[in-house]
Design brief:
The chain is 69% helix and 0% strand. The protein has helices spanning 6-14, 18-37, 46-63, 72-91, 97-100, 116-121, 130-150, 153-163, 168-175, 179-197.
Length: 198
């Protein structure tokens, strides 16, 4: 039996053939993955973009008009790309900035993404005891003094920008330095903070 064309599958899908639908989605899954691989979505992983691409493919199946000049493949590529770009634009709008650019102070589950010391400084719940407040303030001042003596000017600037909520790529752009230099500086800062803790 010969492999059915896209158009044959689409006409079977319109008639309610779920096997044809499954076959068409399977045929275009790699196209969706390759399109999703070309983009990055803040706060999401690759599979989220693949899902957006699959939504675009679904829309292509629903909206394709065989009377138009374009082939289904061209139409599907366009719909998949538009859906992915739409998701990215939606995620990067200013109204989502607080969610997309937040800096967590308690992310011990994500190694190397935050300073380990911040987890130790982050109070679990509210501090009611004035003694704890004074001790916490003294510890903070000791850490600040320590950092002033051990961090280079570049490390200090990178740390300040990071704590202000900038991502590594944003810091690199702002400081006009390669991303790897920013990452290396943060790794040195982390090692120095670990040395202070010990």
């Amino acid at each position: 039996m010969s492999t059915p064309s896209d158009e044959q599958l689409l006409s079977r899908i319109k008639a309610g053939d779920t096997d044809a639908e499954r076959l068409l989605y399977e045929r275009y899954k790699q196209l969706v993955r390759s399109r999703a691989h070309s983009y990055f979505l803040i706060g999401a992983d690759h599979e989220d973009l693949v899902q957006e691409g699959m939504i675009g493919l679904y829309k292509a199946v629903c909206e394709y008009d065989a009377d138009k000049a374009a082939s289904f493949k061209s139409f599907a590529e366009l719909c998949v790309t538009r859906q992915i770009l739409s998701a990215i634009k939606s995620a990067t709008r200013k109204k989502h900035a607080p969610l997309n650019n937040y800096v967590s102070l308690n992310r011990s589950d994500m190694p190397d993404s935050e300073l380990p010391l911040l987890d130790a400084l982050h109070a679990q719940g509210s501090i009611a005891d004035p003694e704890d407040v004074v001790i916490g303030r003294e510890n903070f001042e000791r850490i600040v003094q320590y950092l002033e003596t051990v961090l280079s000017p570049m490390e200090r600037r990178v740390l300040n920008l990071y704590l202000s909520g900038y991502s590594y790529p944003q810091i690199a752009a702002r400081m006009k330095k390669p991303l790897k230099s920013i990452d290396n500086a943060m790794q040195r800062v982390k090692r120095k903070l670990e040395a202070f803790k010990n």
